[in-house]
Design a protein that fits this description.
Strand order of the largest sheet of chain A: 2-8-7-6-5-3-4
Structural class of chain A: alpha/beta
Largest sheet of chain A: 7 strands, mixed
Oligomer: homodimer
Shape of chain A: globular
Subunit structure (chain B): Homodimer.
Order of helices and strands of chain A: EHHEHEHEHEHEHEEHEEHEHHEH
CATH superfamily of the largest domain in chain A: Type I PLP-dependent aspartate aminotransferase-like (Major domain)
Organism (chain B): Neophocaena asiaeorientalis asiaeorientalis
Cofactor (chain B): pyridoxal 5'-phosphate
CATH architecture of the largest domain in chain A: 3-Layer(aba) Sandwich
CATH topology of the largest domain in chain A: Aspartate Aminotransferase, domain 2
Number of helices of chain A: 12
Helix content of chain A: 25-40%
Strand content of chain A: 5-15%
CATH class of the largest domain in chain A: Alpha Beta
Distance between the termini of chain A: 29 Å
Family (chain B): Belongs to the class-V pyridoxal-phosphate-dependent aminotransferase family.
Radius of gyration of chain A: 23 Å
Number of strands of chain A: 12
GO molecular function, one term (chain B): transferase activity
Number of domains of chain A: 2
Largest interface: A-B, 71 and 70 residues
Chain lengths: ~450, ~450
């Protein structure tokens, strides 16, 4: 059965982000409720509109000097402004990429290249041998990052091109501690990369504090002839759900991922003072686009869509956040009411901020592995963790285990992530669905 | 004024690839005629349709097991089949990328990584030192490649990570000679990369041997065959094989492209040159079995880890549809473009006589059916100036990504032996699937008035 899913558009195509605006067309049993917005989001109607218009009217090569090309260039410039505005950055500090994976890989690639350039330059001066002579570049991160950070770092370690410290998150609050990050920094450290919000638990990481402390440390390092440590945050899960401002975060790089905030499947990378303060070494070489930082004929429709999605976030993020939080809190109330002591809310850590839309929970019981429960659901569409791990079978989420969730609970974990249009009525349907799923599983002898 | 340009859709949105199907809505003077299809093409209506449907109905994460994700996965699989069919390859040998730039960079990255792996593996065995011990990997290419081949190679040279030989094209036929390519191969050579068709001159680094059997066999298929023969000898001598790549960006959708005939190990696909979207693909012969591919990106496992990142379903749907159209209609496209381009060249000759030089016509050389690179002789007729005086024609001097190169004549043309004065005056016209003879007439008149204005100025 087709997903009734996102409420951003009902069967008549009406833009509908308000509860109740969707006519109930199908009987409850065949109705699907999508609660996997952290995996991906639908496109807002305005985003589809912007993309379709660009496809039809701005198809010229943006490097071409005649009107069809100029129109495309204007759209790209406007989108860049909107991206920048969404995160409190300057347009000239934004480059477009093919997505979060590329943006994250690009940051890691760049800092390693930069380390070699700096190291080589200093080391060549007989009078001033490099303080990190003979060292590999070192990167500090945490144990719950997305694969597009974790795997390129692991690859660098395998290839013996860099060293990496994966700082464990606290089992008390699910966050990485700024103290532990700073303690891991060494002379040869060139980058600290910490996600802004975790996709599985929703936990918000203390990025502003980490940035502040790295900045202070950098002053000392400069005095001692050591290169500064750069700070990156993968903001994929936070954008569109809570306010994200690079001035408050204090980061040098920030990854933007369109398909998490009702935008298309491309991304962007913010680089503080791109080309002036913060170097960026491109991975790709070609026709000069994006000031040679990311060449390739620009994907105007995608960029138009990303810009529109960013515009909507800049305008409405507070409202989105308020709505998601209200619905998610209601969801957790209903889960508690339905399952009582049996339910454990894995994403609630005392004193820790978390995304407004995410509820990671486990219902205790030997037959209630998350995968089995979801398989018995007839309405709910959700996941156990990251979508790209959907083929991990029965293995409990490494992220949850890292956060100190006991194995039995981790096995039973289900991640629900609500969206801009999720309603309380849908929450009720989901809770009933979970109830029948549990009953069926436990009814089986 | 908006480009009247592509005839794939008229003002009423009717799909219209046939001449005459567009109502003449604007007076001739404000009418624009787009003849820059080598720079980029509009999206076919069916492509827009496929993309819009995917945006609305297949937005789920393709890695998710429920129906919204499955639907997206099906679309991706179908698109992959269509891509493969377009080039005579197997679906499992196709990976989707963000475009031609990425595909080209990925090939170069991969062969260098592979060289180091092979070299290191062999070199570590005390009994059998590597025959290329201490050598950098070496790549052979030609002097008229697109920036997305040339610049990554130049970068490797700057960084002293690889050595590259840029084999000059012949000043007689504008092609690179297979002989010269093979002569440049050394023990440490790991890749030969030669574009299938040049974007500025339209020259094909290939001849359809079925129709021209009496002429010597020419580049890409010949290069592949000879490299394959060489590889057998190299294997006997303990040397790694040389892989062959072709950037097929300009050829796809304009003439038949079949990897079995080309004999290549890698082939780059670029959507926005065949009325598809701005993404691409990379064909890898026997991906993961015969031909290794070392990814540039690491992440969530998509594309079998060769190119991770949540798949851009609408873009992939569009690319698949564009490929389907090419597989079905390429011959018709080719015939139409060739007829219109040949008519254009007739009219240019009729209008400008001896003054016009057709830069893309090299004796005995096959060229793209849609490209006409020409110069009108005269001291005041630099290509840039002529185009600036045109009121109807939208065209370029060469590669779109070089549109900011001012008065510098095209390096590609100079490489092909076009004299400096002519190269300065060069204009590249590239017609499309819907370009009409009537539009050709308008363009020739436009060029005539542009030249007259430039020469009327004292």
């Amino acid at each position: 059965m087709e997903a009734a899913g996102p409420r951003s558009r009902d069967a008549r195509g009406r833009a509908a982000n308000q509860p109740g605006s969707r006519a109930e067309k199908s009987p409850p049993e065949s109705r699907k409720v999508y609660m996997d917005y952290n995996a991906t989001t639908p496109l807002e109607p305005e985003v589809i509109q912007a993309m379709t218009e660009a496809m039809q009217e701005a198809w010229g090569n943006p490097s071409s000097p005649y009107p069809a090309g100029r129109k495309a260039k204007e759209i790209i410039n406007a989108a860049r402004e909107n991206l920048a505005k969404m995160i409190g950055g300057r347009p000239q500090d934004m480059i477009f990429t093919s997505g979060g994976t590329e943006s994250n890989n690009l940051v890691i690639h760049s800092v390693v290249k930069h380390f070699h350039k700096i190291h080589a330059a200093v080391g060549d001066t007989a009078e001033r041998p490099s303080p990190v002579e003979g060292s590999l570049p070192h990167i500090v991160t945490c144990t719950v990052e997305h694969d597009s950070i974790r795997l390129p770092l692991e690859h660098l370690v395998e290839e013996q091109v860099a060293e990496v410290t994966f700082v464990p998150v606290s089992k008390v609050n699910g966050q990485v501690e700024a103290e532990d990050i700073l303690a891991a920094v060494r002379p040869a450290t060139c980058l600290v990369t910490i996600m802004l919000a975790n996709n599985e638990t929703g936990v918000i990481m203390p990025v502003p504090e980490i940035s502040r402390r790295v900045r202070a440390l950098n002053q000392q390092r400069a005095a001692g002839g050591l290169p500064g440590v750069l700070v990156h945050t993968d903001a994929a899960q936070a954008l569109g759900k809570r306010r994200v401002d690079v001035r408050d975060l204090g980061v040098d790089f920030l990854t933007v991922v369109g398909h998490k905030f009702y935008g298309p499947r491309i991304g962007a990378l913010y680089v503080r003072g791109l080309g002036e303060l913060t170097p960026l070494y491109p991975m790709l070489f070609g026709g000069g686009q994006e000031r040679n930082f990311r060449p390739g004929t620009e994907n105007t429709p995608m960029i138009a869509g990303l810009g529109k999605a960013a515009e909507l976030v800049a305008e409405k993020c507070e409202a989105y956040e308020a709505h998601m939080q209200a619905v998610r809190d209601y969801l957790e109330e209903r889960l508690a009411a339905e399952f009582g002591e049996r339910v454990h809310l894995n994403s609630q850590f005392p004193g820790t901020e978390r995304l407004p839309n995410t509820c990671n929970f486990s219902i205790q019981g030997p037959r209630l592995q998350g995968r089995l429960v979801l398989a018995q659901c007839r309405t709910l569409l959700a996941s156990l963790g990251a979508a790209c791990h959907s083929d991990h079978g029965d293995r409990p989420s490494a992220v949850l285990l890292s956060c100190g969730i006991p194995l039995d609970l981790a096995r039973n974990a289900i991640r629900l992530s609500v969206g801009r249009g999720t309603t309380r009525a849908e929450v009720d349907l989901v809770v009933q669905d979970l109830k029948q799923a549990v009953a069926r599983l436990e009814g089986q002898a």
